[in-house]
Design a protein that fits this description.
- The structure is a single chain.
- This protein is of the alpha/beta class and 159 residues long.
- The protein has two domains: 107 residues, 3-Layer(aba) Sandwich (Rossmann fold); 50 residues, no CATH class.
- Helices cover 24% and strands 28% of the residues.
- The strands form two sheets. Strands 3-2-1-4 form a four-stranded parallel beta sheet, with helices on one face.
- Helix 1 packs across helix 4.
- The longest helix is centred in the middle third of the chain and has 11 residues.
- The structure holds S-adenosylmethionine.
């Protein structure tokens, strides 16, 4: 989907994604000492906001202005910078301690191989199950059953 499609999707009433952080983001990053973080493909900022609440200074990057504006309104005084840019070419002007990519669909067959050439240690490279609850009320696809989504989880750290 290009940025215009994402803008249309985010123009829906309410949040497209749930308000809390993604469960794997929370599980993997909850113990880290706060520093400076970048959330690439941040959407409405659920993970960026969660990090900021834990003391991180966060830059949330997305190419959908509509999504970023929703995030900005949720953020209040939290230390999040909202940057409208293509995550595949944007470069941080300052060193960062953490980069999060959560459900940023990039054309990548093999994530670890994409990181070849960087001095990184792979801490975790797994296929992980996530329960997706069936929609309620008059949401689209109601009547479907709860189901399992399979995510690719990659956690790397600088050596
Ligand atoms: C599935 S959503 C996930 C949003 C957020 N990470 C989350 O977990 O709630 C994917 C997001 O990536 C953004 N996106 C996709 N390709 C992008 C690109 N090349 N540059 C910046 N943002 C991009 C979309 O606008 C969308 O907000």
């Amino acid at each position: 989907m290009d940025r215009h499609h994402w803008d249309e999707r985010y123009a829906e009433h309410g949040l497209v994604w749930r308000a809390g952080p993604n469960e794997f983001v929370a599980a993997e990053l909850g113990d880290l000492q706060a520093g400076r973080a970048v959330d690439l493909g941040a959407g409405e900022g659920r993970n960026a906001l969660w990090l900021a609440e834990r003391g991180w200074r966060v830059t949330a990057v997305d190419f959908s202005l509509v999504a970023l504006e929703k995030g900005r309104q949720l953020a209040g005084d939290l230390p999040v910078s909202w940057v409208c840019a293509d995550a595949t070419t944007w470069v941080s002007s300052v060193p960062v301690d953490l980069v999060v990519l959560a459900y940023l669909q990039l054309p990548a067959e093999d994530l670890p191989a994409d990181l070849d050439g960087f001095d990184l240690e792979v801490l975790r490279a797994d296929r992980v199950a996530r329960r997706v609850a069936a929609p309620e009320g008059d949401e689209p696809h109601r009547g479907q059953h709860d189901r399992t989504a399979w995510d690719a989880l990659l956690r790397v750290t600088r050596r």
